[in-house]
UniProtKB/TrEMBL annotation, chain A:
Statement: the UniProt record of this protein carries the keyword Nucleotide-binding: yes
Protein name, as recorded: Probable branched-chain amino acid transport ATP-binding protein LivG
Organism of origin: Halovenus carboxidivorans
Keywords, comma-separated and alphabetical: Amino-acid transport, ATP-binding, Nucleotide-binding, Transport
Protein family membership: Belongs to the ABC transporter superfamily.
Domain ABC transporter residue range list: 19-268
TrEMBL record, chain B:
Keyword Membrane: yes
Protein name, per record: Branched-chain amino acid ABC transporter permease
Signal peptide: none
Primary site of residence: membrane
Membrane topology: Multi-pass membrane protein
Keywords: Cell membrane, Membrane, Transmembrane, Transmembrane helix
Membrane-spanning parts: 21-44, 50-73, 80-100, 112-134, 141-159, 231-249, 285-302, 318-347, 390-407
One annotated Gene Ontology cellular component of this protein: plasma membrane
Compartments, record wording: Cell membrane
Pfam families xrefs: BPD_transp_2 (PF02653)
Length: 272, 436
């Protein structure tokens, strides 16, 4: 308990946090989904965000990524106040999210899905895509992107599906595609909303390995997951949410022993 | 693919579907042979008159091809349900008329030359496209449909209103002519062919330009009047612009810009979560498509020489949708093929069939009531071949075909088509490695 508090106090000094969320609130009708949540995320960490169903994890995600606008509170990413930014502006800043249920673009090929992601593509300007003089520059960039896309697909071992329509992929492959796509945006920090849900154990292990490789490369992750074992083994620190509020925060060992956390997960039964 | 049982039929099918261009040319030739046969059996036998019929059908077909391509950009690629096609067309042609009609005309305009009037019409149609797309930024697809449909009707009603029929701005009298038909500036093709293009065709034909002279003499050989030759030249001119449309839309589709458009159609939140400002893309594509629709209608009615607001009823919009759905939305070649099939088989052939029945069976005049019509074969035939029934029957036929198509081939005649959203071959990775 005291360890957690001192940790929060440290983070409050805003030395090197990449993402800082202060007193975030959001209600839908009469339901307060997020009720004054504050936390900070250190660069190069895999922070786990856990909590029982309805704890407000996904809403927090949607608030940070810009899909929802918070009722109050601030979100500072990399020194910039991004509170109320549209999703595309948040993504352009380098904070990119994945979706809880993989949202592939079904009628587009896997390669097209992945090549959509990179930021500031020349060919996204209409005249450059059409006018003959400018198009050669677009083509050069497209070749580079194609190469990067193939490499990313190889990294996630879905390169054999490159020309397949994304809609034909299995659930697990869609999760991999989603990760590949997020990575192709060249983000600084990645929000992963249950990236392992519905993924078989082999693939799960593979994805976790990738996650650690990427962490070693300097990426920062905020990671929502239900599977306690995975969170405890891979995330540090861990933030626990309950009923729209932050219940606890700290290293896995501290969280494991926190009575309130156990209570939140298992109801009143763990009163010893 | 090696199939053990290869009949001539399957070989022919494989040959036809091998290349889009081949499919298109075979289809075009067969459809126009059909037009020729139909006009032959409906008593039009002279080469000049048959040419005139074919030209008439081709003219409408090319217009629909261009409209379908413009709509494909908005709806097929981006998923923006624009039910205001007719409205943008009306804005294009009426703006052109306001800018370019001579100040001395019965319903005067600003008297500016056509090279200002045509781009002006296109530009204003685009601007309205962008304007209408603005609410669409926050709206889901079905609301956009309602907004655009209402917009198109507002445009039509404003054009035909008393207030717009004739008004004065800064001392200059302008007007849309209200519900009446509005005369339009002389078409550029007329200027090319006649020394005195502002005269009616019959008088102007007496003094052709050197180019006109060559064409009219050639036309005389097969009994085609100068008016037919003029329309023929116009149709060829339209065809060139249609090819340019195809080029433009294909280039957009096969580019990173087109990739974002497709992503917006598939899942807009994903596109924006990947850092794409989807609002900007939607506005751009709506403005471009609407401008193209404006241009099509300018070219259409410049040839006709006049325009009335009654043309721009929502039916026109639905026809363009049917043409695109027939071929398969989201594919440019589908749009082209769908338009050809739609215009020849559904829009134009009932007219010929009516004539053929009238020629061969000589049915009586349409009966007064439905009971009279059901009293025998002859009155029934008379009922079905009246002018009004033919256009009503066309709608019934259209409905049946759409229902059949939705059940059997929901992806359109061409079936499911994917066009690679990049301007490099994505599967071809070898090339990159050699280059670098």
């Amino acid at each position: 308990m005291t360890a957690q508090q001192s940790r929060t106090a440290d983070a409050d000094s805003e030395t090197d946090a990449i993402l800082s969320v202060q007193d975030l609130r959001k209600s839908f009708g009469g339901i307060t989904a997020v009720d004054g949540v504050s936390f900070e995320i250190e660069p190069g960490s895999i922070t786990g965000l856990i909590g029982p169903n309805g704890a407000g994890k996904s809403t927090t995600f949607n608030l940070i990524s810009g899909a929802y606008t918070p009722d109050s509170g601030t979100i500072v990413f990399d020194g910039t106040d991004i509170t109320g930014y549209r999703p595309d502006r948040v993504a352009t800043r380098g904070l990119v999210r994945s979706f809880q249920i993989a949202r592939e673009l079904p009628e587009m090929s896997v390669l097209e899905n992945v090549m959509l992601a990179p930021q500031h593509q020349l060919g996204e300007t209409l005249y450059r895509s059409v006018l003959p003089g400018f198009r050669s520059g677009v083509e050069t960039q497209e070749r580079e992107l194609r190469e990067r896309a193939w490499e990313t697909l190889e990294f996630f071992e879905i390169d054999h599906l490159a020309t397949e329509n994304a809609g034909n992929l299995s659930g697990g492959q869609r999760k991999l595609l989603e990760m590949a796509r997020v990575l192709m945006t060249d983000p600084e920090m990645i929000l992963l909303d249950e990236p392992l849900a519905g993924v078989n154990p082999t693939l799960e292990q593979k994805l976790i390995e990738r996650l650690h490789e990427l962490k070693a490369d300097g990426y920062t992750f905020l990671f929502v997951e239900h599977d306690m074992d995975i969170v405890m083994n891979n995330c540090d620190p861990i933030i626990v949410m309950h009923q729209g509020q932050k219940l606890a925060e700290g290293a896995p060992e501290t969280i494991k022993e926190d009575d309130r956390v156990l209570e939140a997960y298992l109801g009143g039964e763990v009163e010893q | 693919m090696s199939e053990p049982t290869e009949t001539p039929a399957t070989r022919l099918l494989a040959w036809l579907t091998d290349g889009d261009l081949r499919l298109l040319s075979v289809l075009t030739v067969s459809l126009f042979v059909l037009v020729w046969v139909l006009s032959f059996f409906s008593g039009i036998r002279e080469p000049g008159r048959i040419l005139s019929q074919i030209q008439g059908v081709a003219f409408i077909a090319v217009l629909y091809v261009m409209l379908a391509l413009s709509l494909n950009l908005q709806w097929g690629y981006t998923g923006l349900l624009n039910l205001g096609v007719a409205g943008f067309m009306a804005i294009g042609v009426y703006t052109m008329a306001l800018l370019s009609m001579p100040t001395s005309a019965a319903v005067p305009g600003l008297g500016l030359p056509l090279w200002i009037g045509i781009p002006g019409g296109v530009l204003v149609a685009s601007l309205f496209g962008a304007l209408v797309a603005l609410p669409a930024i926050r709206l889901q697809a079905d609301y956009l449909a309602i907004v655009t449909l209402a917009f198109s009707e507002i445009v039509r009603l404003v054009i035909r209103s008393q207030e717009a029929a004739s008004f004065t701005i800064a001392g200059t009298r302008l007007g849309t002519g209200g519900t009446d038909s509005l005369a339009l500036p002389t078409s550029p093709v007329k200027v090319l062919l006649y020394e005195d293009p502002s005269q009616p065709a019959a008088i102007a034909a007496a003094s052709p330009t050197p180019l006109g002279d060559i064409l009219f003499t050639a036309g005389e050989q097969i009994g085609a009047s100068p008016a037919v030759m003029e329309s023929l030249v116009y149709t060829v001119f339209l065809l060139v612009i249609a090819v340019a449309f195809f080029w433009l839309v294909s280039r957009i589709a096969n580019s990173p810009f087109g990739r974002v458009l497709k992503a917006i159609r598939e899942d807009e939140l994903v596109a924006s979560s990947l850092g794409k400002d989807t609002r900007l893309f939607k506005i751009k594509v709506f403005a471009l498509g609407s401008g193209m629709m404006g241009l099509v209608s300018i070219l259409w009615f410049l040839e006709r020489g006049s325009v009335t607001p009654a043309t721009f009823v929502p039916d026109l919009t639905f026809f363009v949708f049917v043409a695109l759905i027939l071929g398969g939305s989201g594919s440019n070649m589908g749009g082209v093929i769908g338009s050809l099939v739609f215009v020849v088989l559904l829009l134009e052939s009932p007219r010929f069939i009516r004539r053929i029945i009238r020629e061969s069976f000589d049915p009586p005049a349409p009966p007064e009531t439905i009971f009279d019509a059901l009293s025998g074969v002859d009155p029934l035939l008379g009922y079905f071949t009246s002018q009004e029934s033919i256009s009503a029957l066309r709608f019934i036929l259209l409905g049946i075909i759409l229902v059949y198509l939705m059940q059997q081939r929901p992806d359109g005649l061409l079936g499911h088509r994917t066009e690679v959203a990049s301007n490099v071959d994505l599967a071809d990775r070898q090339q990159t490695e050699e280059e670098s």
